[in-house]
Amino acid sequence: MSTRQSVLSNVSHTVVSLFVVLSGQISHINAQPESKRAASDTDVGVFELSVIDMHTGHPLPLSDLDIKINDQHLKRQTNDEGRCKLKLDQPNLELLRIEVFKRGYVAMVLCFRPKATGIPIPPTFELRLEQGIQIGGIVQTDNNTPVSGARVKIDVLGYMQYASIIERTQNRIVCTTDAEGRWACHILPELSREVLVDLEHNVYVRSSQENIPIVALKSGDHVLRVQPGLSLSGMVLNLNGLPIVDATLSLGKNRHQAEQRTTDAQGMFRFNKLKPRQQLLTVIAEGYAQDVKVVDLEKDRDDIVFTLVPGRPKQFRIVDVNGTPILGATVEATKWRRRRDRYARISNIHLRAETDENGFAVLKDCPEDDICCSVTKPGYTTIEEYCIRDHRPVHFIQMRPQGRIHGRVYDMQSRKPISTFRMFKGVRPSSSERLWWNKQRVKYIQSGEFELGLEKECMAVGIEADGFQWGETSVVCNDSNDHHRDIFLEPIRTREVTGSVRKADGTPVGRCNLWVATDRHPLFVQGLRTLRHQGFTRGQSDDLGRFVVKVPQSDNFSILILHDEGFSEISESQFEESSPIVLTSWARAEGNVSQGNGGVLIGVEMSTFDDKSEDLITYVFEASVDVNGRYSFERVKPGKATMSKIIGTGTWSRNIDTRHVELFAGRTTQVNF
């Protein structure tokens, strides 16, 4: 597996088809609770929010607040001092969520879930909003005709804190194009982490698959091309050639992401405003086995005919380890036949049933094909991908009661218990030896004790605590027993290092973003701005270019500095606090791609290694190929790299035509494909 494949298996990555992913920083979050108090089931009091400008510290009066307290919705504004007081008199307070909007600033979401996370709601909180910058563009047809009334939808995503206080900054803004097809909105963070751009119109759809450069969005001159949407029509019949009424048609890659239509009295259906691409078209009708077709919307758009056969029931009996029937277990078909161009099964099947008091469940209207099912029941370990490859009258499945992993967390050095920490679930699939950690779902513990039910076959517990290294239990496979596993965390020993950043002419460089990469915490840099940080610490230089960052005492480290005018990467052996760090100019790359338009990207990959030959910093840059077959990288790290064409979208993307090149600082390298 290449470094890029390894990065993409851990980092959510999509090659853009309907939207564009841009980049930014997480370091702009600077909101902290001013004090804490204990959470209780009857948390009653007053919460005061202060909204200020992140850069100046001045209050932001008349900021709009969209507030949710449990199920109660409120609208408020901050006063002349940028403050707003809320009375929290609801019993059993479970949720306080405040969306903060201010014209010219990036919207933020403040979210407290005291019962779910164990983090109390403080009496006061200071939220710092970042000034936004304007982005925009033009919407035109392929023959350069402006399109008015198009709804350009912008989602700004990104910020998240483990403390689960600032839940995210997601601000959906809908900008409507004017008579000249122009749109603009003032919501983009200066160092954006991720921006999604989509378009909606009653006639047109996006006509190209492209990665929009952030520079083009800032200039407001980028053209979004649209074309009239395609249609797809057909009919659903039975074996006698008669129409099937009220059959449900789903058009999409799976059952969760699909447009739906139903057949009329003549068994006809029709989809409109479709984008030109391959799709899965699934049909479901009561009493019939569902069917699916792969349709190419540039070719197969009319007279799609489904001829459905009667469905077959498949019966299950779910029992526990003693043979006792289990009531209320859910049997659900999850995967089905394979596409011709895919190895994995597709998940567009819709069959579900629950067991009765005798443990029986029947999936009606099953196809003749093999299907794979999951069986779930609270208190029992989930059975995943139980694949049916025969026609037995009854399929017997045995479920095990959940065992559990429990224990306490201790300081390895002092042997004293640690009361507050974050707990993560690790799952080892039956088909893999690798343990997968879900870092997006976290449980906050303040009692010092953790407990995890073995809902999957083999699991582990991971622990994070402030000031300590990551710790985890061994993998435990469910045998319906309790497993006691204490975790001892090693304290992180750090030291502060200081330095300064200069240009080649000695001019200080202020507001540089700095990251520290270590053996245990590498960095993934995607493009100039999108930096996936699993690392140790980060910081920023002041207006005179000076900085202070913490580095570990034990691990090797490198300091990475990113700036519009250049970058620097300094290893521990190269770093001297008395000597300024001088930025290296970015390299530039460009070229032609034969037959390269239509969803092709060019990717650049390079890594920096430590003495143990492990990746400390991995760089992945991507650029789109325009309609003339041209691409360019305005800023890319100089050095030896691999360049490839990237075909496909999402998890199905792959690299072809790989080249090994060397890129030089301050120079343009021509690489043609």
Summarize the entry for a quick read.
With 673 residues, this protein is mostly beta strands. It contains 3 helices and 56 strands.
The major beta sheet can be summarized as:
6 strands, antiparallel
What's the count of strands?
56
Question: End-to-end distance, in Å?
Answer: 23 Å
Radius of gyration: 28 Å
- What structural class is derived from the secondary structure elements? mainly beta
Mean pLDDT: 79
Strand content: over 45%
Low-confidence parts lasting 5 or more residues at pLDDT below 50?
A: 1-43, 158-169, 610-614, 648-652
Shape: globular
Number of helices: 3
Helicity level: under 10%
Characterize the structure shown.
The chain has 673 residues and is mainly beta. The chain is 3% helix and 49% strand. Strands 32, 33, 34, 36, 37 and 38 form a 6-stranded antiparallel beta sheet that branches. The model is unreliable at 1-43, 158-169, 610-614 and 648-652 (pLDDT under 50). The radius of gyration is 28 Å and the shape is globular. It is built from 3 helices and 56 strands.
Tell me the layout of helices and strands.
Elements: H1 3-10, E1 32-33, E2 45-53, E3 64-69, E4 72-77, E5 83-88, E6 96-101, E7 108-112, H2 114-117, E8 124-129, E9 132-141, E10 151-157, E11 166-168, E12 171-176, E13 182-189, E14 194-200, E15 204-206, H3 214-219, E16 223-228, E17 230-237, E18 248-254, E19 257-262, E20 268-274, E21 278-284, E22 291-296, E23 304-307, E24 312-319, E25 330-335, E26 351-354, E27 360-366, E28 371-376, E29 383-388, E30 394-398, E31 404-411, E32 421-427, E33 436-437, E34 443-445, E35 449-453, E36 458-464, E37 471-472, E38 476-477, E39 482-484, E40 487-489, E41 494-502, E42 513-518, E43 523-526, E44 530-533, E45 537-540, E46 546-552, E47 557-563, E48 566-571, E49 581-582, E50 587-592, E51 601-609, E52 615-624, E53 630-636, E54 639-647, E55 654-663, E56 668-670
